[in-house]
């Protein structure tokens, strides 16, 4: 679905105007979240990318909310301090634009990530990123492959067993038929001799 050139131009003008107003007005702060949904696999590094702008000095705070509860990840003031929570101490890298990188994600890292940018004048803005974390399915595929190989081996053994049974039955049937034929021939000969 293509957008009309006039619509695209209008959106561009509006976004430029919003940024200009945020930068020129005291207490104005803006936040752009380019990707609201991130899919990751276990042990992957992910970048929670944002871009904030404001006139004064801002404080950036990230929180993680999931079924396990709410955890404060990090808080920092531009050009001042960085306060990373002990749970994330070796797993988080902060960037001046407000983004963070989360290293070695696990299943517990899935959930909502909330960023709050608060300017020194007290104005603030919020953003949200949803992170989905999936387990690597190589172990499941390995199990399926082993199970398939086992079932194939059992099927091959059963086919061989059925073939041997069929062969034995055929030989038994042949011997029985041969014995019956021989006994019938003897009876006919005896009857002939008696006559």
From TrEMBL:
<keyword id="KW-0472">Membrane</keyword>
<dbReference type="GO" id="GO:0030424">
    <property type="term" value="C:axon"/>
</dbReference>
<dbReference type="GO" id="GO:0005886">
    <property type="term" value="C:plasma membrane"/>
</dbReference>
<keyword id="KW-0325">Glycoprotein</keyword>
<dbReference type="InterPro" id="IPR036179">
    <property type="entry name" value="Ig-like_dom_sf"/>
</dbReference>
<dbReference type="GO" id="GO:0030425">
    <property type="term" value="C:dendrite"/>
</dbReference>
<keyword id="KW-1133">Transmembrane helix</keyword>
<dbReference type="GO" id="GO:0046847">
    <property type="term" value="P:filopodium assembly"/>
</dbReference>
<feature type="transmembrane region" description="Helical">
    <location>
        <begin position="12"/>
        <end position="33"/>
    </location>
</feature>
<feature type="transmembrane region" description="Helical">
    <location>
        <begin position="141"/>
        <end position="165"/>
    </location>
</feature>
<dbReference type="InterPro" id="IPR015631">
    <property type="entry name" value="CD2/SLAM_rcpt"/>
</dbReference>
<dbReference type="InterPro" id="IPR013783">
    <property type="entry name" value="Ig-like_fold"/>
</dbReference>
<keyword id="KW-0812">Transmembrane</keyword>
<dbReference type="GO" id="GO:1904891">
    <property type="term" value="P:positive regulation of excitatory synapse assembly"/>
</dbReference>
<protein>
    <submittedName>
        <fullName>VSTM5 protein</fullName>
    </submittedName>
</protein>
<keyword id="KW-0732">Signal</keyword>
């Amino acid at each position: 679905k293509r957008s009309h050139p006039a619509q695209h131009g209008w959106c561009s003008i509006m976004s430029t105007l919003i940024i200009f107003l945020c930068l020129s007005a005291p207490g104005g702060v803006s936040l752009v979240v380019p990707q609201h949904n991130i899919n990751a696999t276990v042990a992957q590094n992910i970048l929670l990318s944002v871009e904030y702008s404001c006139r004064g000095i801002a404080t950036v705070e990230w929180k993680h909310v999931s079924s396990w509860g709410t955890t404060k990840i990090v808080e920092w003031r531009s050009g001042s301090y960085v306060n990373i929570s002990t749970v994330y101490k070796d797993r988080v890298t902060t960037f001046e634009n407000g983004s963070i990188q989360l290293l070695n994600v696990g299943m517990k890292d899935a959930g909502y990530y909330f960023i709050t940018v608060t300017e020194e004048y007290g104005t603030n803005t919020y953003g949200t990123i949803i992170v989905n974390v999936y387990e690597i399915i190589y172990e499941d595929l390995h199990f399926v492959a082993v199970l398939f190989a086992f079932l194939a081996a059992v099927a091959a053994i059963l086919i061989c067993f059925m073939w041997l049974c069929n062969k034995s039955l055929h030989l038994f049937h042949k011997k029985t038929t041969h014995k019956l034929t021989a006994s019938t021939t003897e009876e006919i000969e005896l009857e002939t001799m008696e006559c």
